Amino acid sequence: QRIYDIAVIAGDGIGKEVMPEGIRVLEASARRHGFTLRQKWHDFAHCDYYARRGRMMPENWKEEIGKPAAIFFGAVGWPDIVPDHISLWGSLLQFRREYDQYVNLRPVKLMEGVPCPLAGRKPGDIDFWVIRENTEGEYSAIGGRMFEGTEREMVMQETVMTRKGVDRILKFAFDLARTRPRKLVTSATKSNGIAITMPYWDERVAEMASSYPDVSWNKFHIDILTANFVLKPQIFDVVVGSNLFGDILSDLGPACAGTIGIAPSGNINPEGEHPSLFEPVHGSAPDIAGQNLANPIGQIWSAAMMLDHLGEKQAAADIMRAIEMVLKEPSLRTRDLGGSADTQTCGKAIAVLLS
Ligand code: NAD
Ligand code: IPM
Ligand code: MN
């Protein structure tokens, strides 16, 4: 019998609304495919916890989480209660770093039925992966404030790129490209202006590419790369970037493909020494939270990525088929897709297709 222990963390805002839909679909999928998910829900890593305890997670959070097969995560952040850098560095960014989830895997795909904001694009024109470095780069804890309150007040924050850290994300991207028909890696850089770390990144890309003669590659500075996401999204296959560039590209890509509400992600520790974490790309969306308006598909697609990661390939593929069917049905689309279905209606429709 296949049994998987899953740590479940819903978080804040719409995280608490889309998580039950992700779980609904996982449970339907487990029944259909004959595996068991043992869920352990954790009541921390959200801003109400912070309001009560003055921290985002208990000191022994690693013990509490234990050794699950994967972590299923919603979204964290409620800036009215806790400044975002405190809530996120106290939760999600801890997981990524402490569990060495150095790959952030973010598919971008224009799905049938989803209105595309780019003129004349159809499904098939936008279908690529953003591979984001997830543990170092611009997201560093090195730096500080000095001379506070004086005229000399200043802040600085270092970007950190290690050879190991850069090479392993590039290797992942080239390996992924090798499995795809077009076999193309695009690197996001800014070596014209960021003249120490980014030329280093470029050097490592060239070096890595030399061991993949069967994979083609190119690079763009991040400014024109963002323009090309909008103007020529069909030219991309696997796009690899540093932590910050990957973050930006992985909201822009899904927006070009219609909505960030369906975009999923996997925070992967490829060696499997630590659990990987699956979550939608979007945040807690305070502007629509509590209204049952959120699109649950980002969470549900993340569930499919999690099952794929756990080896339940058929179950993952079935969820994707169900998502595709629901997206084609106007009455089941949420508001971000121009429809009027609520979160639960959309989630239930996907679950029903699996039962
Ligand atoms: P956001 O992704 O929460 O929202 C951006 C916009 O997209 C909002 O207008 C929102 O309503 C809309 N949106 C997002 N998800 C949607 C969905 N599923 N369905 C329909 N519409 C959706 O980004 P933000 O406003 O920059 O951040 C809000 C909070 O979330 C902040 O605290 C931020 O730090 C946090 N955040 C957390 C994560 C995470 O936990 N992984 C990711 C991004 C932002
Ligand atoms: C994401 C989010 C996070 C990030 C924030 C909430 C810290 O935007 O997962 O894309 O920047 O990595
Ligand atoms: Mn982001």
UniProtKB/TrEMBL annotation:
It catalyses: (2R,3R)-tartrate + H(+) = (R)-glycerate + CO2; (2R,3S)-tartrate + NAD(+) = 2-hydroxy-3-oxosuccinate + NADH + H(+); tartrate + NAD(+) = 2-hydroxy-3-oxosuccinate + NADH + H(+); (R)-malate + NAD(+) = pyruvate + CO2 + NADH. Pathway: Carbohydrate acid metabolism; tartrate degradation; D-glycerate from L-tartrate: step 1/1; Carbohydrate acid metabolism; tartrate degradation; 2-hydroxy-3-oxosuccinate from L-tartrate: step 1/1; Carbohydrate acid metabolism; tartrate degradation; 2-hydroxy-3-oxosuccinate from meso-tartrate: step 1/1. It comes from the Bacteria. Its EC number is 1.1.1.83, 1.1.1.93, 4.1.1.73. One of its GO terms (molecular function) is magnesium ion binding. InterPro entries: ICDH/IPMDH (IPR050501), IsoCit/isopropylmalate_DH_CS (IPR019818), IsoPropMal-DH-like_dom (IPR024084), TTC_DH (IPR011829). It holds the Pfam family Iso_dh. Keywords: Manganese, Metal-binding, NAD, Oxidoreductase. SUPFAM superfamilies: Isocitrate/Isopropylmalate dehydrogenase-like. Its cofactor is Mn(2+); K(+); Mg(2+). Residues 5-350 form the Isopropylmalate dehydrogenase-like domain. Has multiple catalytic activities. Apart from catalyzing the oxidation of (+)-tartrate to oxaloglycolate, also converts meso-tartrate to D-glycerate and catalyzes the oxidative decarboxylation of D-malate to pyruvate. Belongs to the isocitrate and isopropylmalate dehydrogenases family. This is D-malate dehydrogenase [decarboxylating].
